[in-house]
Amino acid sequence: MGRQFYFIFNFAYLLIAIFLNDVQRKKTKRENQYGINATFLPGHFKAYTIRLNPLDGVYYCDIRPNMVTDSLLSQHIQAIDHLFYHDLWRLLGRHGQSLEEVEVEEGENEDSEE
């Protein structure tokens, strides 16, 4: 049997999301004229992204007015420029795990043939 090595890392992952706000066409009372509807649902965002699966950063390329005026949304959503000018440099400045902290375990490789 061949040898198999397992590398055990202790990483703290950062999870961010970058969104481009989507819109949908909506019909108006006038023929061949359309308006737009935003597809961002504040209630869904609050439930899924804040309560169930918190992210380290949420950035929108085209931030909606309610993302600034709603106190809870404004705490969790930033414009994309905030990522480029502030958060990205902070994240890049973090030190990762050193090689001395990586544990290597040897095990049997079940997939290899002799």
Could you walk me through the main structural features you see in this protein, from its secondary elements to its overall organization?
It contains four helices and seven strands. 31% of the residues lie in helices and 31% in strands. The protein is elongated, with a radius of gyration of 23 Å. The strands form three sheets. It has a three-stranded parallel beta sheet. It has a two-stranded antiparallel sheet with strand order 1-7. A two-stranded antiparallel sheet has the order 3-4. A hairpin with a 6-residue loop joins strand 3 (23-27) and strand 4 (34-38). It starts with a strand and ends in a 5-residue tail after the last strand. By secondary structure, the chain is an alpha/beta fold.
Percentage of residues in DSSP E strands: 25-35%
| Unreliably modeled segments | none
Order of helices and strands: EEEEHEHHEHE
Shape: elongated
Tell me the structural class: alpha/beta
Distance between the termini: 6 Å
Average predicted local confidence, pLDDT:
77
Which bin fits the share of residues in helices?
A: 25-40%
Strand order of the largest sheet: 2-5-6
